[in-house]
TrEMBL record:
This is (wild Malaysian banana) hypothetical protein. Residues 201-233 are annotated as: Disordered. GO terms for cellular component: plasma membrane; side of membrane. It comes from Musa acuminata subsp. malaccensis. Residues 210-221 have a biased composition (Polar residues). Keywords: Cell membrane, Glycoprotein, GPI-anchor, Lipoprotein, Membrane, Signal. Its main location: membrane.
């Protein structure tokens, strides 16, 4: 064998030793694409008109909401905002306790403010009221001037306005973003009812004085008159004084008749 052939063999052996065979990487298994995360479910649409018609029913409150178009403000807040809404609905008997003139004398703007006053522009569950009671007041839809005070005492929740302090008597509906709570009184703001509280009972009329006769004195007047035969200072004889004189005249007349007999 020639030297050139031997050199080629040695070179080939050296190359085979110095460069190990590269292992083939197995192909990655086929994986289906991961599904996109499901979108958050949209909040359930709550028809407030239907809810208030069926749940209470709260006909008087709903009629005022429709009359003042406050229902549109509440409905938009309930279904088109992230904050939600909390509504305080007076029961029917709460309106019955008001005098007819209390709401009948209000202007349309005052009525609108009054019923905007019955809701917070945010959803609150019953448990949230415990924290709200630590605040001085919570603004309503009617604005910062028209705020309500929350009192939470051993689970009893009171909603304080200027002229009323009704309590929550039941939870009508409470699923975010809408909460509706029944209260046992109408909320009355001082800015509208600036005089005496509308729920204060009217003072009882004074008893009509009994008119005495100008001719014959009453029995009480006779008993109160002094037992004297003297004439009154007005110049005429008093009733009591005239009685003995009449008796004397009758006695004298009867004596004269006996003498003539």
């Amino acid at each position: 064998m020639g030297l050139a052939a031997i050199f080629c063999v040695i070179s080939l052996l050296a190359l085979s030793i110095s460069s190990p065979t590269t292992a083939q990487t197995p192909p990655a298994p086929f994986l289906p694409p991961s599904p996109a995360p499901a979108p958050a479910p949209a909040p359930h649409f709550v028809n407030l008109t239907e809810l208030l018609s069926v749940a209470g029913p709260f006909h008087t409150f709903l009629n005022y909401l429709l009359q003042t178009q406050v229902i549109e403000t509440f409905q938009n807040q309930a279904n088109n905002t992230k904050q939600g809404i909390t509504i305080f609905v007076p029961k029917e008997s709460a309106f019955a306790s008001l005098k007819k003139s209390d709401l009948g004398n209000l202007t349309q703007d005052q009525l609108r403010i009054l019923f905007l006053y019955h809701a917070f522009p945010k959803y609150y569950s019953l448990s949230d009221f415990k924290n709200l009671s630590n605040l001085n007041s919570v603004s309503t839809f009617a604005g910062g001037q028209y705020a309500l005070n929350i009192t939470y005492t051993f689970g009893l929740i009171s909603i304080g306005s200027d002229w009323a302090n009704p309590k929550i008597t039941s939870s009508v509906y409470s699923t975010a973003p809408v909460a509706v709570y029944e209260i046992d009184g109408v909320l009355l703001p001082l800015a509208i009812f600036s005089s005496d509280p509308p729920l204060a009972p009217a003072p009882a009329p004074a008893p009509e004085a009994t008119k005495t006769s100008d001719i014959t004195p009453t029995q009480s007047a006779i008993g109160a008159a002094p037992k004297s035969s003297e004439s009154s200072t007005s110049g005429g004889s008093s009733y009591i004084a005239s009685v003995p004189l009449l008796n004397c005249f009758v006695f004298a007349l009867s004596g004269s008749l006996m003498l003539t007999m």
